[in-house]
Batch of 3 targets.
Target 1
Amino acid sequence: MTIECPTPNHEDEVVLLGHGAGGRLTAELLDQLILPAFDSGSGPMEDAALLPGSPDLVVSTDSFVVSPLFFPGGDIGSLAVHGTVNDLAMRGARPLALSVALIVEEGLPLPELRSVLRSLGKAAQSVGVPVVTGDTKVVGRGAADKLFINTTGIGQRTGSLHPSAALARPGDAVLLSGPIGLHGTTVLSTREGLGFESDIASDTQPLHRLVRAMSPLGPHVHVLRDPTRGGLAASLNEIARDSSVAVEVDESAVPVPEAVASACDLLGLDPLVVANEGCLVAFVTAAVADEALAIMRSVPEGAQAVRIGEVLPEGPRGRVTLRTLVGARRVVEMPLGEQLPRIC
């Protein structure tokens, strides 16, 4: 029997920081408040959506509130581009255009804003996606924390690569493109001055080239997801739920850098729930798993790709289990709320 911690009772009906964490509180906010207001109906929660009336055009929007603005391996500007490009890529789309909206707090030093914008522009140029529109607002001191960025991306799917969180099937191999936990622990260590940032850097990077390399596998690629908020645990639970399958992962196969493991041990965190910004998890037909790994490893963004698990032929639908290092099995729960706030 599995005993879960109860979801907090929100008697005061206020928004909690955990509502933005990508876990169970976020799902509760979506299901009970946001989606009903838009009459959006039910269906898988995808990283990006098909535009109505178009079989190929995809749209995604995201807001970035990371603190601090600058961290080893990146900053809020490059992160905004990478995050939106990656959400498009998880639906098999190449980026066509970006919008950028800025909410700037009064008093932000102009050199900091200039540095962020230069980084954002450089990241967009590296990806090959133009920034075609945007907006700028300035709010009073204390009304925001330095700088928030919203980006919206338009992408186009080509070929037969049409992944969805609802398409995982029994027997699928679960692949991971690289090590986990780097982004979350880097940002937290920099923010709190823990010292780990001298050994690690955020993994923030665009993944569209990696996805494009996988395109010859076409319909054999069932699911793509970048494990950002809530980490690998949240992504696997979302896929298991939306596909109504049981997923099992081998703990010994999941690559956790030593510095990340040390930081998580110190802080009492599970690396599986720590945010990432430069890796993806893929569910592919078992017959092409080796070919898929070879393709992923041929691209710099997937050089450390590994097979970490499988979709079980039977088992409790929507459940994710972990084969531990000692040979036992434990349920990997959907994270409840915010363990690492302001990560993206």
Note: Helices lie at 24-38, 76-89, 110-127, 182-192, 208-214, 231-243, 258-267, 289-297.
Target 2
Amino acid sequence: MEKWENNRAWFLILPVFVIVAFSAVVPLMTVVNYSVQDILGPGQRIFVGAEWFRDMLTNSRLHDALVKQLIFSGLVLLIEIPLGIGIALTMPQKGWTASACLVLLALPLLIPWNVIGTIWIIFTRPDIGLFGASINSLGIAFDHTANPLDAWVTVMLMEVWHWTPLVVLLAYAGLRSIPDAYYQAAKIDGASRWAVFRFIQLPKMRGVLTIAVLLRFMDSFLIYAEPFVLTGGGPGNATTFLSIYLVKLSTAMDLGPAAAFSIIYFLIVLLFCWLFYQALQAVGTGDKS
């Protein structure tokens, strides 16, 4: 009877399993089902096995989109992580100024993704946009709708402006969790500002920075709404990332290839997140030894 009483606690999490089954597992199984079949019409389908996976893995457009995605996500991490740490280090630690900074930093995170793209379309317009018109007034030809490099610069600036505050908030939380005793000991030892950062602040922020790297990589690797609204994947295919290419496949009713690509996409994200996590954990282990 006592054992049954203890096991009844599992009923409390049963609703969670039901919700996850309908929101994640069932759609995933549907995608897996589509990925091994050729959908000819309602009730008409042919089992093709791994054919769509072979087609996707040898698809040159997918390779091109993957390279663009890796470059984009790599640049996002290289810019946002150091920038976020630097801003967090300069923020006030106490008082109303600290609260004001936190509120202002959180504002971009509250704006819907499609609205972000619309804001930057207006902001970077070469004729009336504050940024675009200002750049062109300096004699520099700037048009993100016609020049691939300008499109990349615009998308990167938009992404950095939108999501660097998340890194700042996480890094700031990590800094505020460091006891004052560490700083007092460093002051007594005559440690430099760089030494304090290298041996106290950075190791103590390892946990939150691991979260920041994983979140920013996953989100940047899955980015869709902002660049789609801003550039539509253009000019040409200059900003056609994996998510945009996937949507183009699915809207063309190529359900089999789109489903196979979705699974490949999912596995790529899992692989890179695992690699990042292992690398960051290894760095942390090395610091402790």
Note: The longest strand covers residues 37-41.
Target 3
Amino acid sequence: MYIARQPIFDKRKDVYGYELLFRNSTTSIAYTGTSAESSTAVVLGGLFELGVEKIVGNKKAFVNFNYNSLLSNSIELVDPSTLIIEVLEDVKVDSRLIRRLESLHKEGYRIALDDFVHSIKDFKIVPVADIIKYDLIATPLNTIQDEVKEALNRKKVLLAEKVETEEEFIEARKMGFHLFQGYFFSKPVIVAGLKGKKPNITIYRRILNELHSEDPSFHILAEILETDVSVAYRLLNIVSKKDDNIQKGLKSALIKMGLTDFERWVHIMMLQDLSVNKPNELIRTALIRSKFGELVANNCGSLYPRSSEISLMCLFSVLDAMLDLTMEEAMKDLSISDDIKDALINGKGALVPILKLAEAYEQGQWMDIDLLSKQLQIDSNRLVDWYMDSITWTDKIMTGV
């Protein structure tokens, strides 16, 4: 089974929940039988075994249901405080379905109507629905103004799906939408007059240059850290949390952490500092991709020796969005390999397939996942475990820093 997730944001760009995308790993590239939606009952059992809370944390889990899966008793495997039931747009509405949705609603489950194209006044299951989802490609904002007003009058929560730009997010928010789904949060927003203006990353560049030198020196690294009290403080703070007895000093903290973990920590700190006014989910995406890429590389014979390089490539894959620059501008002056730069700027080189796999997985592009898995000669059935491990690792990192 493949499981991916896509973030759903509130008006402040904080994560409200995740839509879970899934597919049985036994399904062929060209679907010839059961679709992902009609196998929801089976997948819910899998989610129950994995632990939905491990996938979405303390956020909501949006899961698609068709007619048959809505009538199954598998839904009750997942706690109503976590699960939001998405009723697919083509579901057959009859008295049996309405009774079932009313019963689920009484049990505490929230109901969402997916890709809504009907009339708010006339569609029979609107009264039991809590959330109305509009696909902004299928139903652009300027075509649903009256429907949005009616939905708001009925106290419905409105979710804009496939929001691809910051402008769409702002417009939908002004119209009254409460929740937002799409990749607007991970794309650069170039502001006139500010293009090319980068935050100060001098200390990180100096640290990375020393780390990548032939013989990195703890003494020199400590001297660099002494020039930035904020970064130095955070290093001492995180090491002290792990060892209360450590001698309080930058060099001893560096030795305790070790060069490998220190470099990882520097990458994360840099991303945090560069992502001012950006959603935390952008950092989370970078970290999940980084760990996922590393795990894939560790199980890919030809790329195993380059797992650290691949991890860094995936980590920096959202750097353009964080800096609101082109990737070429974002990569300038960074002390990283030419192969990483070629992959991120030009989409070329031996490292690219793993980055494409990470991106395809988070978007639920199953056909691409199958093809890339075969190209990399990895067992695609293990992807869900690596993805889950990446989420767990990222949650620990985000909590720690």
Note: The CA atoms of residues 357 and 372 lie 6 Å apart.
